[in-house]
Design goal:
binds S-adenosyl-L-homocysteine, alpha/beta, TIM Barrel, two-stranded parallel ribbon, 2 domains, single chain
């Protein structure tokens, strides 16, 4: 079966081509056609030899992902349901910001992490999303929405560090100067806290921003909300964050959803500030986006502001995230995998 050319990093493509008797620089040329000129017909890659063009056409595919459905939000957020070869459908979201357009990429079909507040975990993981499928989420959205993409967040369905190798391959492809050339500071990977992978990530040569889904300031509450905490409790997550910072000098983001009456009291803010003191990080407070199946409620604005003020007062860098796309269930935690059979 032909493999998608979007699965290959520049180096992997080069190795493959050199094995077949072609040249390393051909990989660079092909990257420029695919990612800069957005050409998907190998025969149109006019600076390649006829022999190479025929070889590529015989060996690889270069299709985008077909759209199953598309929804537009009042705030210009667009949610696409893309169809994969094996008939699974995955969601990808395009968000408009002052600084440009950001794509929220799905990394797994379903999710096994089982967080109590997140719609993505309502269906167990069926399989990992390949690097090429992540690349094609970005290229497809860019083409269908006719827009450039300046930022990437790996915050769609799935746990990126449970699909580590594909996610790192994806990042290499979009970061490559001959690829989409999206800088590491314009890419964010969010994890629920898989400690061994946080440590591995600290040793990578490209390091996009790291966000950690914290959501509770103590183990008792966090284990209730996020089962992964039983495997990797908070002290291990915080220690891994310190190692990460020592190696990379990159500031971490802690994500914290405010859940009414669950984790949004002033004492939680105090506990949170004690927990993360000494980590070079900032806290991103996220309003809870309702998911029909769950009983959680959104914290009122006045209490969110009080929580924010308390963290500030205790010397924590903190932001309150604005909501986007909630009217089309495209907001954080509202993405769910849909099967099409
Ligand atoms: N598995 C990764 C990537 C998903 S990112 C992770 O856990 O970080 C999606 C972000 O949205 C995470 O911070 C997640 O905890 C948060 N989220 C999940 N459900 C939510 C909901 N209902 N409302 C708001 N944020 C939610």
């Amino acid at each position: 079966m032909k493999r998608s050319i979007y699965d290959y990093t520049r180096n992997a493509l080069s190795e493959h081509l050199v094995d077949e008797g072609f040249k390393d620089f051909n990989a660079t040329q092909i990257f420029e056609w695919l990612y800069q000129h957005r050409i998907r017909d190998f025969h149109a890659m006019t600076n390649l030899s006829k022999k190479l063009r025929a070889y590529l056409d015989d060996s690889f595919t270069a299709d985008l992902l077909p759209i199953e459905t598309k929804r537009m939000s009042d705030d210009k957020t667009e949610k696409y349901l893309f169809l994969l070869k094996d008939h699974h459908a995955i969601e990808t979201v395009l968000m408009a910001y002052d600084y440009g357009k950001s794509v929220c990429v799905t990394s797994q079909v379903g999710c096994n992490m089982g967080c109590a507040f997140c719609a993505s975990g309502l269906k167990k993981k069926t399989r990992d999303v390949t690097a090429g499928e992540m690349v094609r989420q970005v290229l497809s959205i860019s083409e269908y929405a006719k827009t450039d993409v300046s930022n990437i967040v790996v915050m769609g369905t799935g746990e990126p560090f449970d699909n580590y190798d594909n996610v790192m391959r994806f990042i290499h492809i979009i970061n490559n100067d001959h690829g989409l050339a999206i800088g590491q500071r314009h890419i964010t990977v969010s994890t629920c806290g898989l400690v061994p992978k946080i440590l591995e990530y600290a040793n990578e040569d490209i390091r996009p921003n790291l966000a950690i889904s914290l959501h509770a300031p103590n183990d008792k509450l966090r284990s209730k909300l996020m089962p992964i905490n039983r495997a990797f409790p908070l002290n291990e997550v915080i220690d891994a964050c310190k190692v990460y910072f020592d190696k990379t000098h990159r500031r971490i983001t802690f994500e914290y959803i405010l859940l009414k009456g669950v984790n949004d009291e002033i004492r939680h803010a105090d506990e949170l500030s004690d927990l993360i003191r000494g980590v070079n990080a900032y806290v991103n407070l996220i309003p809870y986006n309702p998911v029909g199946e769950f009983a959680f409620e959104k914290t009122e604005d006045i209490r969110s502001t009080a929580f924010y003020d308390r963290l500030k007062k205790r010397g924590i860098n903190v932001t309150l995230r604005r909501e986007q796309g909630a009217d089309i269930e495209a907001a954080c935690g509202q993405l769910r995998m849909k099967d099409k059979h």
